[in-house]
Structures are given as C-alpha cells and as structure tokens.
C-alpha cells in the first residue's frame, strides 16, 4: 500500500512517499503554496501517479500534548483532502519533526540555503516513517 506523508505548512508542504511494502518513507517533493486549488491539484496528481491509498498528515500537537491553533488549520486541510481525493487522511503527531529534520541537515553539513529547500520534504519523511513504524513495531 502506497502512503503519502505530508508536513503541512502555510508556505510550503513537504511530501514523502513510502515504498511498495510500506516499510520506509522517503522525501519526495515540496509544494510551494500559491493557492489552495493549486496545492490540491498537485497532491491529486501525486496520489494518482503513485497509486496512493492513504495520506498521513503531520498533526502539530504542543509539547504537552494539547492542540494548538495550527491543529485547526491541519484539520480543515485534512477534510479538504478527504473530500477531494476520496482516500483516508490520518493525522499523526509531528512533534519536533521539523526540528529533527533541520538537525539532520545541519549534522550532514548541508548549507542553510539548501536546507530551506529540503527541510519540509525531510520532515514529511520523518512523519511518514513514524507512522509506518507504528504499523510494523517489530521491524525497528
């Protein structure tokens, strides 16, 4: 089952895709917001081209586990995706995924300008991998 992972942001959306076995998530692309229709169209193309059956979207809970303002934006976007694509959208705790992605890129020696271009899709991969690991607890 192919699953798409999203790191939702108001400027960019990081996108990751799992392998055919559903074991590993890899950063795929970053969609830069122009308008809602353009973003939904881009995601629809990815879903169709890759045979995606489910989407996992990062859910930005606060460190204490409560929902913040950004959670309502994600909820709205998730509802739009489900209505438009007719596939399930699962919200997955994304706590510190962007920070982790940034740390990985810094430790890898990636320059700041390049980090800005890839941090979102890497964060999407981290979110997706967390979800995949929960499905296969013995494999990690």
Element pattern in H and E: EEEHEHEHH
Number of helices: 4
The neighbouring-strand order within the major sheet is 3-2-1-4-5
State the helical fraction: 40-55%
Number of spatially distinct domains: 1
The parts where pLDDT drops under 50 for at least 5 residues are none
- Mean pLDDT over the full residue set: 92
CATH superfamily: YqgF/RNase H-like domain
Instruction: Specify the structural class.
Output: alpha/beta
Q: What is the CA-based Rg, rounded?
A: 14 Å
Q: What's the CATH class, please?
A: Alpha Beta
Q: Which fold name fills CATH's third level, the topology?
A: Nucleotidyltransferase, domain 5
CATH architecture: 2-Layer Sandwich
How much of the polypeptide forms β-strand, as a percent range?
15-25%
Largest sheet: 5 strands, mixed
What global shape is seen? globular
Number of DSSP strands?
A: 5
């Amino acid at each position: 089952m192919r699953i798409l992972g999203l790191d939702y942001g108001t400027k960019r959306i990081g996108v990751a895709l799992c392998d055919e076995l559903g074991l590993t998530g890899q950063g795929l692309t970053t969609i830069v917001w122009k308008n809602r229709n353009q973003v939904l169209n881009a995601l629809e193309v990815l879903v169709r081209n890759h045979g995606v059956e489910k989407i996992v979207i990062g859910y930005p809970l606060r460190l204490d586990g409560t929902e913040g303002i950004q959670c309502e934006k994600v909820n709205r976007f998730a509802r739009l995706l489900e209505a438009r694509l007719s596939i399930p959208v699962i919200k997955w705790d994304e706590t510190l995924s962007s920070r982790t992605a940034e740390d990985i890129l810094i430790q890898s020696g990636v320059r700041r300008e390049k980090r800005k271009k890839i941090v979102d899709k890497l964060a999407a991969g981290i979110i997706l991998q967390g979800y995949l690991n929960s499905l296969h607890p013995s494999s990690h």
